[in-house]
Amino acid sequence: MKYQWFERGAFATKKARKYLSETFSPQNIKKIAVIRHAALGDQVITRPFLIEARKFFPNAQITLVAVSNYQYGMPDDLVDRVHIMPGKDKKQETSVSDKIKNIKALGEQDIIFDLASTNRSHWMMALSQAKLKIGFPYKNYLRGVLYNLCVPRSDFQPEVECMLDMLKILGHHPSYPLDFNYPDHRVEQDKVNPFILFFNGASQTSKILSQQQVKELIELSLSSHPEIKHIFLEGKNPFEKGDFLKDLKQYSNFAIQACLPLEQLIELTAKASLMVSPDTGVRNVAIATHTPTVGIFYSTVPFRYTPLYEKHHVVMNADGSIPSPQKIYQTIKSEVSSWS
Questions:
Q1: What letter would DSSP give residue 106?
Q2: Which three-class secondary structure state does DSSP give residue 43?
Q3: Which residues contact residue 293 at a Cβ distance below 8 angstroms, ignoring those fewer than 6 apart?
Q4: Is the pLDDT of residue 235 over 90?
Q5: What is the CATH number of the domain that holds 153?
Q6: Phi and psi torsions of 26, nearest 5°
Q7: Structural domain includes residue 178
Q8: Inter-axis angle of helices 96-104 and 119-127, to 10 degrees?
Q9: How far apart are CA 47 and CA 270, in angstroms?
């Protein structure tokens, strides 16, 4: 099993098996590229992979391959180099020739990890040179074509774990709880003046609750827990503002927080006792700071973004209907009761 820690489910070409058995050594790897094309929440959950890759490949230069229209929250603090591919925002000004030149500019790597599996990342895999090309493609026919080493990907497994499987298959054992290199709730939590954060934004409005549902939910919690501060976080989009909650300012334990820069949001989240949010990047920020969460799901699969450790509650209905404010509040109540 030398650097090939799997029996069933994963895939490796004969050439990859030979390389792993006869030549591969983590200490001798000099260049690795990690492709990740995604919005804030998906950028955040990439952080443990980069941290664990640094441990396993101590002598490697790590290049993050990102895309121009998804740079917010990019974990560039954990890598040595960033390579930006032209995205949708550059579509009109980028020719096919320019795209190929951009891919070639990455340079030859020892290993390329594709954590995106998008059309753009597929082109990067096809036109780049590397001894190992590792990914988790949904389409089986890409095995052996774009990738010479593949791990399974499932909607029922946290996506960060699927990423880490690409290191586990080589024999690396990640540390748990996962390290995101963010401020840590377990250290930073404000226990003297506990507060709950609420956020109702997302990249798609189909993921969020109606304003009436949010107002009803927060008021239920406010009236039941007067000793706990409740803060509604505003986002940058017009539909993420808190004007509709101004009536709740009659409660002394309620406040609306204007949209914060990412660094300040991370710091505030680490101090919070709980984050209540739909499937969004802000919930992933809470997960990354080890802050307990109540996640509201009805249009996306919850299992891909809910860790198997720590206190992260999922509120959902099996039929896909929107959970009621009362049902969401019961989960908040249960969590709050565990604090005493």
A1: T
A2: helix
A3: 274, 275, 276, 277, 283, 286, 287, 311, 312, 313
A4: yes
A5: 3.40.50.2000
A6: -55, -35
A7: no
A8: 60
A9: 16
pTM over 0.85: yes
CB atoms within 10 A of CB 213: 17
Q: What are the φ and ψ backbone dihedral angles of 147, each rounded to 5 degrees?
A: -125, 140
Six-digit token string for 2: 């030398």
Q: How far apart are CA 199 and CA 233, in angstroms?
A: 5
What count of other Cβ atoms lies within 10 Å of the Cβ of residue 262? 14
Task: Looking at the structure, tell me whether residues 269 and 301 fall in a common domain.
Answer: yes
**Separation of alpha carbons 39 and 199, rounded Å:** 17
Tokens (6 digits) for 313: 């509650």
Instruction: Label residue 309 by pLDDT band (50, 70, 90).
Output: confident
Whole-number mean pLDDT of the chain? 95
Rounded (10°) CA dihedral 96, 99, 100, 105: 160
Q: 225 and 149, same structural domain? A: no
What pLDDT is recorded for position 1? 63
Q: Which residue type occupies 71?
A: Q
Is residue 203's pLDDT more than 90? no
**Residues 66, 70, 72, 74: what is their CA dihedral angle, to the nearest 10 degrees?**
-20
Give CB contacts under 8 A, 24+ apart, made by 82-86.
Answer: 83/33, 85/37, 85/120, 85/124
Domain count, the chain: 2
Query: How far apart, in whole angstroms, are the C-alpha atoms of residue 39 and residue 65?
Result: 14
